Amino acid sequence: MLQQLLIRNFALIEEMIIPFHPGLTVLSGETGAGKSIVVDAVSLVLGGKADRDMVRHGTDKAYVEGTFDIEGNQALLAYLQNESLDVEDNVLIISREINATGRTTSRVNGTLINLQVQKTLASLLMEIHGQHEHQALLSEENHILFLDTLGDSAYENLVMKTSDSFALYKQYQREYETLIRDNEYRQERLDRLYKQQKELEKANLQPGEEEELVKARDFLRNTDKINRGLQSACSYLSEGNGQQEAALQQVKLSVQALQEMTGIQDTYDALTARLDALYYDLEDIAYALRKNLSDLDLDDAQLDGIEARLDVVRRMEKKYGTSIAEVLEYQQKITEEISRFESLDEHIEQQKAKAENAYQQFIQTARQLSKARHVLAKETEEKIDHELSHLNMPSARFTIQLQAEERSANNRGIDKVRFFIAANKGEEAKPLSKTASGGELSRIMLAIKSVASEKTLVSSMVFDEIDTGISGKTAAVVAEKMWDIARYRQVICVTHLQQIAAMASSHALVRKYEEDNRTKTEVVYMNEESRIEEISRLLGETREKVSSGAQHALSLLKDAALYREKHSGHAG
User: How far is CA 239 from the centre of its chain?
Assistant: First the structure.
C-alpha cells in the first residue's frame, strides 16, 4: 500500500508530505483546491504522462516520491529480483523528477530505471480509476478490454497466446506480401543485378590489392630519384669522383697503414680488425647497390598499367563501397540476392504456406478464447447485475453481446464485444453508449471495478471523482460499496459526495490559500469536529443552516461508523 507521498514544486504545491493509511481515505475540498493535483502526482509516481507545465512557476524542476509497503506482494518482489532492484524492510520508494523542458528521471530506491520498468511496477502496486474511464466505457471498441481484465490467470494466458499467435501470423503475412511486391519488379531487378555482377566479376578485385598497387605506384613514380641515388652511392664507394679516391680504396689503404703496427699494442690490433671488418661490410654494400641499380626497371608502361588498375579499383569503390572489402561484401550480397530472386517463386509458396498455417493456428486459439470469453461474459453479467442491485439499480440487467467476426480478427481474437443495459424493469436492453445516464454510468463503472477487485493483485486503488451524477440513496450505497472494496485493500478516493466522505476511515481536506503573493495548496487530515464542518459544506450548508447541516453531517458519520463496524474486514 501507499504509505506516503512527497510532492515538491509541483503545480501549486511548493512542498508537501502526505501520509496515507489502510482502508478508505477520502480527499475532499472546494473545486479547484488541488485535489486533482494530488492524483496527478500519484499518477506520475506510477509512470503516468509528464508535462513541463507541471513544474511550479519559478522553479527549474518538480519532484514526486511515493513510499510503498510491499510486504506480501510476491509478484512485485519477484519482479524486483528479476530486475536486480534491491529492497530493504519491504519498503519501495519510487521517485520521478521533471525538469523545465519536460524531461523526466525515475528511480526505485535510488536506482535509475526506465519508464517501462516504472509502469510494470505500477501495475503491481496501484490502479487509478478516473473520470476519463467513463468516456472509455462509452466507446464500444474498449468493451473487449474491460471484459478481458475480469478473466482469471488461465484466461489471461489464453488472451496472451491469442495475441502472440496473431502477431506471428501478421509477421509471416507481411513477409509474404513483401515477396509478392518483390516479384512485381523481379526481372527489372535481376537485369540490374546481373549487370552489376558482370561488372564486378570483370573487375576481379582482390583483398589487399589496393594497398599493394599504391606501394608499387609510389615506387615507380620515384625510380629516377632512386636511380640517381644508387649511382651516386656506388660511385662514392667504388669509383671515386675524379678528385678523391673511392671510399673502399681509402678504407683499404687505412687497413694497410695500421697493419704495419701489428703486434706493437693490442689497441692497434683491435682497431685494425674493426677497420678490416668495415671494409668487407662496405664491399658487401657496394655489391648490393650495384645489384639494385642493375635490377631497377625504368619501364613507364608498368606505371601506366598500375595507374589503370587503380582507376578500376577506385571506380568500383565509388559505385559499390568505400574500400575493396566493402565492394567484395556488396558483390556477395548481389550473388545472394540473385539467388533469392531466381528462386522467388519457391520462396513465395513457402512463405504463403507459413502465413496460412500461422493464421489457422491463430484462428484455432482465437476460437478457444471466444468460448472462454462467452463463459466469462455470462459470469460477468451475473456479477455486475448483483453489484448493480447493491448500487440502487435492482431491476437493471447488464448484458454482454459477443459476435464472432473472423474477417475482422485482431490481436484480441475474433470477437466483437458490446455492453448493453436495461436500467429499469420492462425495458429492452440497449447499447450502453446510447442509454446510460451519468449516474448509471458511474455505477456501472464502479460495479465493473468491484468485480475486477476480486481478482486484481494490487493492494491500492485510487478513484478520482467517479461518482459523477450520483446523489441521494444511490450515493449512500456507492459509499458502502467503496468501503466493501476498502475492507481488503487501500482505497484513496477524491469525491464531492458527503456520503462517501462520511464513510472514510481517514478524511483529508485539500485547500488552496495565498502566501507571499503565491497561491499554494495543502492537504490536512481532519479530526471529528473538522470532518463535521467539511461534510456540512458538502451538504451545501449556509450560515443560516449551520446547526441543521452539522446535525446531518454527524448523523452521516454515525451511520457510516455503524456500517464499517458491521462490515469490518482487513481495513481499519
Answer: 82
- The Cα–Cα gap between 293 and 287 comes to 10
Give the pLDDT band of residue 436 (cuts 50, 70, 90).
low
Q: What is the pLDDT of residue 243?
A: 55
Tens digits of per-residue pLDDT, 15-48?
A: 899 999 999 999 998 888 888 888 899 999 988 8
Round to whole Å and give the CA distance between 37 and 374: 40
DSSP 139: S
Query: How high is the pLDDT of residue 569?
Result: 61
Query: Long-range contacts of range 296-305, CB-CB < 8 Å, 24 or more positions apart?
Result: 296/223, 296/226, 296/227, 296/230, 297/223, 298/223, 298/224, 298/227, 302/220, 303/217, 303/220, 303/221
Q: Is the dihedral of CA 33, 35, 36, 42 positive or negative?
A: positive
Three-class SS state of 4: strand
Distance CA 447, CA 137 (A): 12
For the beta sheet containing 430-431, the strands, ordered from the edge strand earlier in sequence to the opposite edge, are 397-404, 415-422, 430-431
Please tell me the predicted confidence (pLDDT) of residue 134: 65
Residues 425, 410: Cα–Cα separation, whole Å: 36
DSSP string, 34-98: SHHHHHHHHHHHTT----GGGBPTT-SEEEEEEEEE-TT-HHHHHHHHHTT---BTTEEEEEEEE
Spatial distance between the Cα atoms of 81 and 548, rounded to a whole number of angstroms: 57
**What's the pTM value of the predicted model, to 2 decimals?**
0.63
Among candidate residues 534, 477, 518, 527, the one with its CA nearest the CA of residue 500: 477
The span from the CA of 71 to the CA of 352, in Å, is 52
The single-letter DSSP state of residue 410 is: B
> Residues 125, 93: contact at Cβ < 8 Å?
no
Q: Name the strand (E) or helix (H) holding 278.
A: helix 266-295
How far apart are alpha carbons 355 and 180 in whole angstroms? 13
Residue 124 grid coordinates: 503491481
